[in-house]
User: What shape does this take?
Amino acid sequence: QVQLVESGGGSVQPGGSLRLSCTASGIMFKISVMGWYRQAPGKQRELVALITGGVGTTSYADSVEGRFTISRDNAKNTVFLQMNSLKPEDTAIYYCYALNRNDYWGQGTQVTVSS
Assistant: This one.
C-alpha cells in the first residue's frame, strides 16, 4: 500500500518561506516521478513542480519559477518543496504526488500566506 505523508505547511506573511516535506512508503521511490500540486479555494488543482527519478530533472509552473525549489532525498524516500518569497496567491492546499505506473496522492497540507 502506497502512502504519501506531507508535513511543513502553515501560515506565513508575504515574503516569507516554508519548506514542505513528503515521505513515501510502499513505492519504488528512487525511480518514481515525484511532485507537488496545489488547490486554492474555488480553483482547480494545478501542478506546482515535478522531479523525475534517476537524474532528478525538475520542472516548475511559471507562477513559482525562481521562488520554489523541488528536491528529493532517495535515501529517505522524501521529496521537498522549498518555497521562498511567498505571495498571498500561493495560499492553497498543497498535495504530494507520485507517479510509478499509477498516480498516488498525499492527504494535503495547508499553506496560508497573509499579512
User: Anything to note?
Assistant: Residues 37 and 70 are 12 Å apart (CA to CA). The longest strand covers residues 92-100. The two ends are 40 Å apart (CA to CA).
